[in-house]
Amino acid sequence: MQQKQPHTNRVSIRRRAKIVAKQRVMRCLLPVMEAVLICVLPIILIAGPIQTYIYSTGQLLFPIVLFVAAVILLIMPLVYGLMGFLMRVLTGERPPLLCVFDGLAGVENYLRSVKLGLCIFVHIVLWMIIPIAATAGYCYLMLLRDPAILENAEKLYQLILQMSGLYLVIMIPFLARILRYFIAYPMMMRDRSLGAWQATRQAARAFKGHNLHLIVLVVSFFGWQLVGMWTMGIGTLFYWGYLLSALLMYFWYLEHPDGGENQQSESIPEQKQE
């Protein structure tokens, strides 16, 4: 059972996780960004045709089903490989980029990654219901108060900006909740007998008592999100590689409060002497 740690220790763990993660990622900056790109490239490729289909037909059901299928059957297996790739980077290795495709290598790995991806996707959808409902409710109230907004381009643009800002603010604590489930990847890599749903439940419990610090961790990356926007998405590749690496290091330090001097882990990165 995980021992409850003092507030100061939790802050120290969060800061140390970020520092070590950044050092490791910077050593393999280009491969890390390429690995993240491999995961998001399928979304980029299908986004255009999906938008074209929606604009030309006005139908939403088929594009939504296609997108969800692509996420579960292709993106999530790639994320499985990406997490393994980042774990090796955090140990000081320079893994080959082909490691990102480990979730697609073999029927067993693929089925495990798809099952885990499906479970994580379900959790993501459930946690996103509240931010989406709150934003939609705000939009409804504004339109109810002033229906003319739809006929005024400037007012409509302002409403869209307000909704985007509101959604981002509300989404921060929920994003922290969602990120916890990505720790299920190293858990399943460590224990091949662990089921997908059980892994996500254990991943959520692993951060019990650290939710506030996890939110602070997510907020601390806001600047890197802005850099990603200003660089036309290029900086976003570093942002996600850095954020997921910091999350992995955070989890590893929770399991190894002594810094790993007396414990070894087969799948969670350990800090090596510089």
Descriptors:
0% strand, 274 residues, 10 helices, mainly alpha
Question: Any overview of this molecule?
Answer:
This protein has 274 residues and is mainly alpha-helical. It has one domain (9-255). 75% of the residues lie in helices and 0% in strands. The protein contains 10 helices and no strands. It has helices at 7-27, 29-57, 61-90, 107-145, 153-180, 184-190, 196-206, 211-219, 222-230, 234-255. Helix 4 packs antiparallel against helix 5 (153-180). It is globular and about 60 Å long. The two termini are 31 Å apart.
Shape: globular
Radius of gyration: 20 Å
- What portion of the residues fall into strands of 2 or more residues? under 5%
Residue-averaged pLDDT, rounded? Answer: 85
List strands and helices in order, with pairings:
Layout: H1 7-27, H2 29-57, H3 61-90, H4 107-145, H5 153-180, H6 184-190, H7 196-206, H8 211-219, H9 222-230, H10 234-255
Helix pairs in contact: 1-10, 2-3, 2-10, 3-4, 3-10, 4-5, 4-7, 5-8, 6-7, 9-10
Brief digest:
The chain is mainly alpha-helical and 274 residues long.
